[in-house]
Specification:
By secondary structure, this protein is α+β, with helices and mostly antiparallel strands. The protein is built from three helices and three strands, in the order αβββαα. Bound molecules: zinc ion. Zinc ion (ZN) binds next to loops.
Length: about 70
C-alpha cells in the first residue's frame, strides 16, 4: 500500500516521516508516516521501483476504425 497521489502525500505535510530497512541484508525499505502510523511507500529489494507502482505515462488513445477511415477519405 502506497500513498503515491498528490492528495495522499499532501495529507502528510508537516508529519514525522521515517525510512527503515527490514532484513539482513535489507530486503525491504519502507517510508512511514509516524504521525499517522501509515506506510507511504513500501519497496522490496527485488528491483521493485516507484515507477512499477504507478504508470509513468498514460496509455496512448486507440483510434476507432471509423475515425481512421474518415482521415483516409480526406
Ligand atoms: Zn501523516
Amino acid at each position: 500500500m502506497s500513498a503515491l497521489t498528490f492528495e495522499n502525500l499532501l495529507r502528510h505535510v508537516g508529519h514525522t516521516i521515517t525510512c527503515s530497512a527490514h532484513g539482513l541484508p535489507p530486503q525491504n525499505v519502507v517510508l512511514n508516516c509516524e504521525t499517522c502510523d501509515e506506510v507511504i511507500v513500501d519497496l522490496d529489494a527485488d528491483g521493485e521501483t516507484l515507477f512499477q507502482l504507478v504508470p509513468v505515462t498514460p496509455e496512448p488513445p486507440v483510434m476507432p476504425p471509423a475515425a481512421a477511415m474518415a482521415v483516409a477519405a480526406d
